[in-house]
Structure to design on (638 residues):
């Protein structure tokens, strides 16, 4: 039973939320409470299977699942010489990202139960939320370029629908329009590069493509398109203009999901650089490009954040800035890949960048959820119109402090652990990288001190309802806060059991190709 | 040369579409630009799989005694294109419905005047 479950886990993880999503509107017609229970049940089951699969991947090695094959592990059918079917390939990195997506989705869904209680059309809201989960998991598991495009579009459409969820507000539609135009353009760039690959090699499978890739002019063109598309989707400067708009107007729980969705694009970027191209790349040039994107995002993000007056817009710019850390860490790894230093501090840098992905998903998710809680109580996102909230919202204030200290990299919270890894290893490449990273960290702290002061300190605000936010919202925030504290207290365990296998899997191109075989 | 004409058309379509997305201020024209880029990419995929004098790929294996001079065209790019068209329709419908809502809220389709978020 357990073995069957694990064998089919990659397909089940896509099938269960997908089926759940399409049944949600039907159940919603019958009974609203049953619908909420159904959505949470689906996400809890998904989370459980994801944890089982991740544990198996981290201890036993990568999982392969061939769609439509009698034996899911046989990637190449008898009549063919190459993998023609869609293969789901879950290695350490995919499992790591899958864990993030599932956890954030679950926390966001629990939070939404109370947070969305003043809105109508919640059946559709939860349908799209589940579809977003499917899109993220699909992007992270797939071993097929065209499939990647399809899941990217599933994710984009569901996200755009949710960003525009408050259709009675003009700005929500405006943000969603920007998001969908940018996403579609990015997805078409991905599709074009899929065409370039197929025209040259007659292949769509990532592992098989990586095996025969010759780094011709067309491959370089495809690389440029893919990097541009995924950097745009993950909100790296200079393609970041959609991020603050879309993050600000989406309901807070969806903003937390959008953070995880951007990270799925980040994962796709890393997968393309490390696995699809890998050692055939001109590693120095591409590494420097990724590092430069990272530095730009870090610095521009934080400087744009400081003058913001809208609490969610401010946090969105910080999200851009934090994405820079991940790009920096993994970019340093890419720069050093196949050099002698890789085994000493190149891999450390990648571990830092990858560890930062999960930390960011947790604390940024938490911060957006606290911003949502403030919005729920006060009805505004403007920092100048709020104050004194610590009197009535003690738990929210505590959660905010945890998130703010984590993002600023204050020990013993998780942000410190991953930033330290990045500082140490980036310093070996060039001290300037670490100096910029630390400077950005200080500015981040300054910015969040300001937010804390204007939102939570000061005299009691004159609002009619002075109670704490509902319990389900606190529960959603608590899931993420517990994660932050645990990861901060036991960083060594997390790095050696989760992050190290993920970084190793990402760097091990030959292993990824070899597990599919054939060709 | 004659075989390259579709590729020239692909580049032209994508360039025209990108021009519309980047420089037009009317939201409907931006939507049209996206559709043109998509048409260019779809044409690219279809052209990749085409063979001179080929026929539609209906059979897995040809029946005994039948031979086709050009062979069959490649089925995979056609399947990709179909998927991409379906996705494109969904996206276009979503974008246009957003445009309708924007017009109701702002009373204009001029991108330069739709900037409540910028304040």
């Amino acid at each position: 039973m357990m073995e069957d479950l694990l064998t089919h886990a990659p397909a089940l993880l896509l099938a269960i939320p997908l089926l759940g999503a399409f049944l949600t509107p039907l159940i919603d017609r019958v009974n609203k409470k049953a619908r909420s229970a159904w959505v949470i049940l689906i996400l809890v089951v998904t989370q459980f299977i994801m944890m089982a699969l991740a544990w198996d991947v981290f201890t036993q090695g990568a999982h392969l699942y061939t769609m439509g094959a009698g034996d899911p592990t046989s990637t190449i059918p008898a009549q063919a010489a190459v993998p023609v079917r869609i293969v789901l390939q879950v290695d350490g990195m995919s499992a790591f990202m899958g864990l993030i997506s599932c956890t954030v989705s679950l926390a966001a869904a629990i939070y939404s139960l109370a947070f969305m209680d003043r809105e109508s059309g919640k059946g559709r809201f939860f349908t799209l939320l589940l579809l977003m989960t499917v899109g993220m998991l699909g992007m992270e598991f797939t071993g097929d370029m065209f499939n990647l495009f399809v899941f990217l579009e599933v994710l984009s459409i569901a996200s755009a629908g949710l960003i525009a969820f408050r259709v009675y507000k003009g700005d929500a539609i405006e943000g969603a329009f920007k998001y969908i135009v940018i996403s579609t353009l990015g997805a078409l760039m991905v599709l074009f590069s899929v065409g370039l690959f197929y025209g040259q090699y007659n292949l769509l499978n990532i592992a098989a493509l990586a095996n025969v890739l010759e780094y011709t002019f067309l491959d370089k063109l495809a690389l440029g398109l893919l990097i541009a598309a995924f950097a745009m989707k993950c909100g790296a400067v200079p393609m970041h203009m959609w991020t603050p708009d879309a993050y600000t107007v989406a309901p807070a729980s969806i903003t937390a999901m959008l953070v995880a969705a951007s990270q799925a694009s980040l994962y796709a970027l890393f997968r393309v650089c490390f696995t699809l191209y890998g050692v055939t790349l001109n590693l120095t040039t591409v590494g420097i490009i990724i590092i430069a994107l990272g530095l730009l995002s870090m610095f521009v993000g934080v400087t744009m954040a400081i003058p913001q007056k809208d609490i969610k817009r401010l946090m969105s710019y910080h999200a851009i800035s934090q994405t820079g850390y991940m790009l920096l860490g993994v970019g340093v790894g890419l720069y050093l890949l196949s050099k002698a230093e890789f085994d000493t501090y190149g891999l450390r840098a990648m571990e830092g960048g990858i560890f930062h992905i999960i930390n960011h998903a947790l604390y940024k998710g938490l911060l957006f959820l606290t911003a949502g809680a403030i919005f729920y109580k006060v009805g505004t996102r403007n920092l100048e119109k709020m104050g004194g909230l610590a009197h009535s919202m003690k738990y929210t204030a505590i959660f905010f402090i945890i998130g703010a200290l984590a993002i600023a990299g204050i020990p013993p919270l998780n942000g410190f652990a991953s930033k330290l890894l990045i500082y140490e290893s980036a310093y070996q490449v060039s001290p300037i990288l670490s100096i910029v990273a630390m400077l950005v960290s200080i500015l981040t702290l300054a910015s969040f001190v300001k937010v804390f002061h204007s939102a939570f300190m000061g005299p009691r605000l004159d609002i009619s309802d002075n109670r704490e936010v509902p319990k389900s919202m606190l529960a959603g925030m608590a899931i993420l806060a517990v994660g932050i504290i645990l990861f901060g207290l036991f960083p060594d365990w997390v790095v050696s059991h989760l992050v190290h296998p993920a970084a190793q899997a990402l760097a091990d191109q030959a292993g990824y190709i070899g597990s599919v075989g054939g060709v | 040369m004659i075989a390259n004409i579709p590729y020239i058309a692909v580049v032209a379509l994508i360039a025209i579409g990108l021009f519309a997305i980047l420089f037009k201020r009317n939201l409907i024209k931006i939507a049209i630009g996206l559709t043109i880029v998509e048409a260019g990419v779809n044409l690219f995929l279809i052209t990749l799989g085409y063979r001179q004098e080929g026929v539609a790929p209906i059979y897995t294996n040809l029946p005994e005694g039948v031979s086709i001079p050009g062979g069959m065209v490649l089925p995979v790019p056609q399947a990709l294109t179909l998927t991409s068209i379906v996705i494109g329709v969904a996206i276009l419908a979503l974008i246009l419905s957003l445009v309708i809502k924007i017009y109701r809220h702002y009373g204009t389709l001029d991108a330069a005047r739709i900037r409540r978020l910028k304040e």
